[in-house]
Design goal:
seven-stranded mixed sheet; Aspartate Aminotransferase, domain 1; alpha/beta; binds pyridoxal-5'-phosphate; 15% strand; 2 domains; four-stranded antiparallel sheet; Aspartate Aminotransferase, domain 2
Length: 378
C-alpha cells in the first residue's frame, strides 16, 4: 500500500457510459447538436421535479448565466457564503455587483442562516445557497427570508447531487439551481454543468445566453452578446450513463464516509464531518477534517500525508480574503475579518482526504491508519 499513491479523487465510469459515448463516436454526433444533450437535460430536470434543464460547459458557467438570466446588474447585492469556491462570485464581480459574504457554521461548514437577515438592504437581489462538502443548507428558513424580502433564491448544488433536504432533492428549491459535473462530483461528464428551473422566461434566456445570443428568427444576427457554453453530445452521453448510477454513487460515498468515521472515531485532535443534520444526511462529497485548537495548520498535515503517498487538499480559501477583491470598488467594511472567524479558522486548519468513488476499502483503512499516527504525534 505504501508505494501506490492514493489520489484525492478518482471517478467511476461504467460500461453504459462507454457504450453511449461510443455511439456518439460511431454516429458522428459529437457536438452539442446531438440528441443526448436534450435527453440529459430532460432527465436531469425531471429527477428534480423541474420543467427545464440547460446543460453547459461547467458549474462556473452555470452560475454565470444564471445570475445574468435573473438580471443581476451593477450595484446589486448578492448574499453568499464566504466559505465556498471563487465561481460563486465571478459573474457578480465582473458585472460590478457586490458579493455580500456570510460566515459559515463551525461544524457543518455551511452558511450561517442566522447572520443573513442583518445583511439585507434595498440593493439585495438574491441569496446564493451553496451546499457545502455533502451537507445541505437549511433551505426552509432561507426560503422564508427570500419570500419576505422578495429575493431570488439560487441553489449551487455542485457538491450535493443526489442529496435530500428533508424529503426532496437539493437543487429543487431555488428559482434556478446550478450543478457541476467535474470528475469529483457525484456524477460526472468530465467537465460540465447544468441549470434547472421551472420558469420558462429564465429557461429561454439561459438557452440564448448559452448559445451566443443567436437571434431566434434570423441566423447570425445578434442584438446582444452571449457566451458559447454548449455541452457536447459526448459529455451528455457520459452524463446519461452516470445518471443511472447516481443512487449507487451516493450509497458508495456514504459507505466511504461511514468507514472513515468508524476508523477515526477516537481522534483527539481533529473535528470530523457531521454525519447528519436534522434535515439532511451527509453524502460526503469530500471527507474533511479540521485540526482543533490551532495545533497545526492544514498545509503541514497535507505535506505529511503526501510523504505517505496520500493525496489531500486544503479547504476553500474564503472569498472575503481573496486578493482579487482589491481590484474591485467594494466597501472594505463588508469584509471585516473578525466577522468571519469560523471560515478563517477552518480554511487554515481544514483539509480533505481521498474521498472519490474509485477509492477502495483497503485504501480508506490505510489513510485512516496514517491519520491516526499523525493524531498520536500531537
Ligand atoms: C460549490 C461549487 N460551485 C461551483 C463549482 C464550479 O464548478 P466547475 O468546476 O464545474 O466550474 C464548484 C466546483 O467544485 C463547486 O464546488
Amino acid at each position: 500500500m505504501d508505494n501506490k499513491f492514493i489520489p484525492v479523487n478518482t471517478p467511476k465510469i461504467g460500461d453504459l457510459e462507454k457504450k453511449l459515448v461510443m455511439d456518439c463516436l460511431d454516429t458522428g454526433w459529437i457536438s452539442s447538436e446531438g440528441a443526448y444533450v436534450k435527453n440529459f437535460e430532460e432527465r436531469f430536470a425531471e429527477l428534480h421535479n423541474k420543467k427545464f434543464g440547460v446543460a453547459v460547459t461547467n458549474g462556473t458557467a452555470a452560475l454565470d448565466i444564471t445570475f445574468e438570466s435573473l438580471g443581476i446588474k451593477a450595484g446589486d447585492e448578492v448574499i453568499m457564503p464566504t466559505f465556498t469556491i471563487i465561481s460563486c462570485m465571478h459573474y457578480v464581480l465582473r458585472i460590478g455587483a457586490i458579493p455580500v459574504f456570510i460566515d459559515c457554521d463551525f461544524y457543518s461548514w455551511n452558511i450561517n442562516i442566522n447572520k443573513i437577515e442583518e445583511k439585507i438592504t434595498p440593493k439585495t437581489k438574491a441569496i446564493l445557497a451553496v451546499h457545502i462538502y455533502g451537507l445541505a443548507v437549511d433551505l426552509d428558513p432561507l426560503k422564508k427570508i427570500c419570500q419576505d424580502n422578495n429575493l431570488f433564491l439560487i441553489e449551487d448544488t455542485a457538491e450535493a447531487i443526489g442529496l435530500n433536504y428533508k424529503d426532496t432533492l437539493c437543487g429543487s428549491h431555488g428559482i434556478a439551481s446550478t450543478f457541476s459535473f467535474y470528475p469529483n462530483k457525484h456524477i460526472t461528464t468530465g467537465e460540465g454543468g447544468m441549470i434547472i428551473t421551472n420558469e420558462p422566461e429564465i429557461y429561454y434566456r439561459l438557452l440564448k445566453l448559452r448559445n451566443l445570443c443567436f437571434d431566434n428568427k434570423k441566423r447570425f444576427l445578434h442584438n446582444e452578446i452571449g457566451w458559447n457554453l454548449r455541452m457536447t453530445n459526448l459529455q451528455a452521453a457520459l452524463g446519461i450513463g452516470q445518471l443511472e448510477r447516481l443512487n449507487e454513487n451516493v450509497k458508495r460515498k456514504r459507505q466511504i464516509g461511514q468507514r472513515y468515521h468508524k476508523n477515526l472515531t477516537d481522534l483527539k485532535n481533529f473535528n470530523l464531518p457531521l454525519k447528519s443534520l436534522s434535515y439532511s444526511e451527509n453524502i460526503y462529497w469530500v471527507f474533511g477534517l479540521v485540526m482543533k485548537n490551532n495545533i497545526e495548520k492544514a498545509e503541514v498535515i497535507i505535506n505529511n500525508l503526501k510523504k505517505k503517498n496520500i493525496g489531500s487538499r486544503p479547504f476553500f480559501y474564503p472569498l472575503h480574503k481573496q486578493p482579487v477583491l482589491s481590484k474591485f470598488k467594494l466597501n472594505k467594511n463588508n469584509y471585516e475579518k473578525t466577522e468571519f472567524s469560523n471560515a478563517n479558522y477552518i480554511s487554515e486548519y481544514g483539509f480533505y482526504i481521498p474521498s472519490g468513488l474509485g477509492l477502495l476499502d483497503e485504501e480508506i483503512d490505510y489513510v485512516s491508519e496514517v491519520i491516526l499516527e499523525i493524531d498520536n504525534f500531537y
